[in-house]
Model the fold of this input.
Amino acid sequence: MALILECVIVMLLVISLFAVLGLVLVLMERKVAARMQIRLGPNRVGPKGMFQTAADTLKLMMKEGLTPDGADKFLFNLAPFVVMIAAMLIMAPIAFAKGFQIWDINIGVLYVSAVSSVSVIGILMAGWASNNKYSLLGAMRSGAQIVSYELSAGLSIISIVVLSGSLQVSDIIASQQTGWWLFRGHIPAIIAFVIFIIAVTAETNRAPFDLAEAESELTAGFHTEYSGMKFALFFLAEYINIFIVCAIGATLFLGGWMPLHMGHWEGFNHLMDYIPSSLWFLGKTFFLIFLIMWFRWTFPRLRVDQLLSLEWKYLLPISMFNLLLITLIAIMGWHF
Amino acid sequence: MNASQIIFYLISAFVLGTALLAVTTRKIFRSAIWLLFSLVGVAGLYFWMQVEFVAAVQIIVYVGGVVVLIIFSIFLTHHSGSELPKPPLKRTIFSILAVLLGFAFSYNLIAGYGFPTTTSEKPFVVPVSAIGEQMLDTKKYGFVLPFEVVSMLLLAAMIGCIVIAMRSIPKGKSIQKPATPISANGGTFKQVVESTKTMEEKTT
Amino acid sequence: MAFLKEYISEVYHAVSSLLKGMRTTGSYFVRPKEIITQQYPDNRADMKIPERFRGEVVMTHDENNEHACTGCTACELACPNATIKIVTKFDTTPEGKKKKALDTFVYHLELCTMCNLCVEACPTSAIKMAQTFEHSVYDRNQLLKKLNNPGSKLRAGVE
Done:
């Protein structure tokens, strides 16, 4: 009985987190975009446009969910849920604060990279079932992109696993008690971090890697035919995925909820411990989200051939070589 | 029957049902999707058995790799949206016979094993590091030989792929060099020039 | 070895150029004072319109109700879509000679594309572009304008 109650509480928490994240991240994206383009952004609904996304959500809920003629109706309706469920599943091993984790599975980061590859199935499904050439092209691009960028994302995750010696999320965080891996692992850790950020930007189909939805060429790519709440699910899943990959990045490279500790500065370390661990986690995650948004509003979109040559000619060889370096550092104990 | 058993039967029913749908549906894309669900169900079974590592590898390899490639090849074929013709009766009968034979064979094996009830008190927990050490173990029950053989096989497959994908240049023919790269998208252009250059060196 | 050197320099140049782009957008992000958006109906009183904004064609009159238009129709000829129509009359000079002068400067605002060609064509700088832009009216006839004030005449000395 207690187990069922626990399940219900966790479900409610995850769903409400999804709703809040969707509202906050979309507003943040629009505000950041506006500031970077010397604009004001949403400023009409509520104070400083705070309720803009709530109004948008209401609009999307009122809209008709259209299913196009000639579509594979079952798969068309299933696809947004597949994407959403995959996003929900990845949430499980993320540590939000000290001792606040849904499932501390012993293969944490492997589980994350496994489940994150499921969401591409939803995209492929949506693209095929829409019976639309734009959707099909978008889905194919997305498939090629995610399959290839998973490699370098995985390699940069492995380099941190090599340093910390565990796949479990709580162990990885505990290994950063004396300092974050980004600083302790010298330059190879920084290279791994940069490659990780590039690869996850591509995996979440964000600009400059948004070829799957490329507004100017494919109208909206794989979700061209979606409207109303089904579109909203895709839209929400995109932002949830950004949050998740940034949370993973913060956990691996920036120490999760671990406060910033500096060598032997006792006073400084004690001061940092006063800040709650959840704030540390959210602060790091939102910093990485801001970084990814910064990319989106600065860089132009890549072509397909440029996208693939970036991965196979640059990121993959560099991250393989980098992994060797990190292994050397870990074996010789050269990290701090 | 306790909750654990109920979950086991539910997952098994899901795996079998989706597997059956995968072979009986007449749309090839749906068939791939049912296969996907079946494989996810198998991964769920592994999670139920608490062998998380195998479950995660099952998802990475089969769902993230194999099914995505199957779907990709379906996308690239013509008429992937139209329904397949009904299979002839002879084929149906023979496939049912093959299935029955396979079922009887594996049932015979499983029934022969007998499954003695083990009463091991300690929980079945395999750390990932133990799996890794077993993989590279050279002593008894070590898997270093199969591991290395498989890696050689994969290396051979990779080299084969590269050889197939590489543009072969007929001998004795001079390669037409592309015009001087334009600065606007010179990045990729230059590489093309370079690769032809290296190939030229190889052939001569 | 040369290949490796080129490879590394390529990566270096790519990263440095991307960082340059990020510095530009990042500097805009931290300086909200540079935001150029104007919240139009709210800031109607203290709106800043750039000097080169083209709202409509007007004719400048000085305090003696005199303009500089000689009625040469250069603007009418320059106009690409017949927005301007100039009606001329003949004045008699004190010497008793007849002289062409402007009677009515007809301006169809509804046809104007604000291309500025008439202003450039005018030899005496009689017309210019104004910054007004709230032109919406309920009747199309109100957009037909006479640019010279009633009773105005040519400024002395302008040929």
Chain A has a mean pLDDT of 84.
